[in-house]
Amino acid sequence: MSRWLLPALAIAMLPQLAVAQAPPRKAPDTELRDYIKSHYTKYEYQIPMRDGVKLFTSVYAPKDDSQTYPILLSRTPYSVAPYGVDKYPDSLRPGSAYVKAGYIFVNQDVRGRWMSEGDYVNIRPHNPGKAGAKDIDESSDTFDTIDWLLKNVKGHNGKVGQWGISYPGFYTVCGMIDAHPAMKAASPQAPVTEWFIGDDWHHNGAFMLPHAFNFMFGFGKARPEPTKKFGRPAFEHDTPDGYKFFLELGPLKNADAKYYKGEIAFWNEVMKHGSYDDFWKARNVRQHVKSIKPAVLTVGGWFDAENLFGALETFKHSEANSPPKSGNHLVMGPWVHGGWNGGDGDSLGDVSFNAKTGEFYREKIEFPFFEFHLKGKGELKHPKAWVFETGTNVWRKFDAWPPKEAKPSSYYLSANGNLFETNDPGLKKAITSASPSLALADEYVSDPAKPVPYINKTTIGMAKEYMTADQRFAASRPDVLVYQTGVMKQDFTIAGPIEVELNVSTTGTDADWVVKVIDVYPDDFPDPDPNPTQVKMGGYQQLVRGDVFRGKFRNSFEKPEPFEPGKVTKVKFTLPDTLHTIRPGHRLMIQVQSSWFPLIDRNPQTFCDIYTADEKDFQKQTHRVYHDAASSSRVTFGVVK
To answer: What residues pair up with 71 in beta bridges, in sequence order?
Structure first.
C-alpha cells in the first residue's frame, strides 16, 4: 500500500485552473467563447445508428491541421445546445484546459432526446445478446457513433475518450461496456447505475421523494418529435417549505392525481414497481460492468446526494470483473454532485475542507489522465484510489479501495446513550448489569404525521448540504435515539463501507431504519471567520454518513415481508463508503430514527405497497432498538491507522 498526504495548504496554493462550466452557474466566459470561435470549427451531423435512427451530434474540431487530435465524446439527455453551426457555447466541457490543449469535442443528444430521433427510455436496459440490426442499447449507440466519427471526421488520431457526470455518466458506463476498440479512456463521474438500491430515486428500497418528484416533473414530459425547444419546466410548489408541501401531498399516489395528471409516463411506471422486480433488475447496469478494456477514471463526491452509490459501485465492478490493469482508478473528493467540475470544493454548508480540492482534481488528476491515454503525453502516476480524507482534510493514495489494511472495529449501542467499542470495559458492564437503570432496549414513538426533518432549514427540494449538516436539532427529538462515545484520545479514521446490524422490534408490521454516523465537535471548536451565518461550531454534530433501510426488504428486495409485531428482528444493511477522521477531542455519535422527511417518503408502518397506500395505512407505532447480550445492535467500521 502506498499512501500520500498532501497538506491542505499546499493544495490551496496550486495555481488556479480556469474551467468551462461550474455548479453553481457562473457568468458567461466571453473570452473563452471567443477563443473557441477563433480556434474551432463547429459541425452538426445526424449520425445513423445500426437500426436507421439518427442521433444529433455537434462536433467542434480544431482549425489547426498541423497535427491530429483525440476525440472527446459526451452523450447527454440534457441537450447539446446551442443548435446551429454558427452558434458557439461559452465553454466546452470538461474545461478550458482541454480547449487550449486541443481536442475534437463531440457532444450528442441521446436517442429520443432533443434533436435526436427515436424513442427515449430511462436507464435503457443493456442488451448483452445483440444479434440483429434492430438490437440496440446505449452501448451500441456509442459504438456506432464512434465508428461513424472515425470514418467521417478529419484530423483525429484514432483515439477516443468519453466522459460525463450523472446521467451522462451512465452513458459513459454504457460506452465502456462492449467498447469500440478506439475508445482508450473513459471517465464515468457520479454515474447513475441503479434506481432502486442506491442511486437517485431509492436507497435500499426507500423512495427519495423530493428529488424524484421535482426532477421527473420536467425531465419526464413526453417529447413527440425532435426539437430544439423541449425545455425542463420547474414545478411550482407555491411554498418554499418542502416539509409542508410533501406532508400535505399525503400518500404517494396523490402525486399523479394532484399534480402530474397522467403526463409523466415514467413516474406512473415506477409506481407499478414497489419491489426489486424485473423492471428494476433490467435497469441495473452494474451487472454488465465487466471485461472493461479502456482505461477508467471513476469520479465521485463523498457528499454527493444523488449518485455517491453509482461512483463506488462502478469502480468496484470494473475492478472485480475486468482483466487486471493499472488503468482503473477511483477518485473521491469532498464534493456535492458534480462539484469537482467547476467549484473550488473547499467547503460544504458549515463545514470547511481548507483546500481547493476542485482545482487540484482538475489540474492534477483528470486532465493528465486524458492527456496520457489519448495523446501519450506525460507520465501517469495515478494510484488505484485517490481519495480525500475529511476531518484531517488531506488527499491520500491507496493501492486498493477499500484499503486492504482497514481493520473492522465494531461500536455497540448501549444503555444510557453510550457507544462502546468491542474491547471497551464499559461494554461488558452495560450488557450484563442487572441495574434497572440500564434498560435492555431503547424505544421511541414514530408518527408518520410528524416525521423527523432531514435538515434544519426551510428548503423545497433535496438540499445538497444535508450530507454534512448539523444534527443537533434531530438529537433533541424524542423519536431519535442518540448514542455517543467518550472523547477520542487519538485519530479514528473510518475507511470504506459501514456495516449496520440492528436488533429491533415494532408494534407495527413495517418500519424504516435510518442510521447516521456523526462527528461531534468539541465545545471550544472555533467558529469560521468571517461568519456571515453566525453558526456556532462548538458542539457541532456533523453528519459523516447516513442512510435509510426500508424494513420490509430486510431479507429480500424482491420479496418484501411484514414484521411480526413485538418480535425481535435483525436488520442489516450497509452505509456507503467514506474516508473520515474523527480527531482527538471529538466524539463519535450514532443516531437511529425511522423517518427522514421529506428526503425519504413516509413509511406507513403497516405492511403494504407504499406506492398505492391510503391515508388509513399510516399509523403511529412504537419501535425498539435492543442492546442486550442476546440481541446487541452495532455499527462496524473499517479503520486505518
So the answer is: 104, 160
Confidence (pTM)? 0.93
Span between the terminal Cα atoms of the chain, in Å: 12
Listed residue (407, 412, 409) closest to 502, CA to CA: 412
- C-alpha 271, offset from chain centre: 22
* Cα Rg of the chain (Å, integer): 25
Do 113 and 77 contact (CB within 8 A), yes or no? yes
> Please, is 616 exposed, middle or buried when counting C-beta atoms within 10 Å of its C-beta (0-12, 13-18, 19+)?
exposed
Spatial separation of the C-alpha atoms in residues 524 and 393, rounded to whole Å:
20
Decide: helix, strand or coil at residue 172. Answer: helix
- Contact (CB, 8 A) for 187 and 297: yes
Tell me the residue length of the chain: 641
pLDDT given at position 27 = 58
- The torsion defined by the Cα of 631, 632, 634 and 640, in degrees rounded to 10, comes to -120
- pLDDT tens-digit series, residues 31-46: 999 999 999 999 999 9
- Facing residues of 571 across strands? 502
φ, ψ of residue 78 in degrees (nearest 5): -100, 10
Number of other CB atoms surrounding residue 266 within 10 Å: 16
Phi-psi region of 200 (alpha: psi -120 to 50; beta: other; left: phi over 0): alpha
- Of 241, 231, 232, 168, give the one whose Cα is nearest residue 210: 241
Low pLDDT (below 50) residues in the chain: 1-26, 434, 437-438
Predicted pLDDT at 120: 97
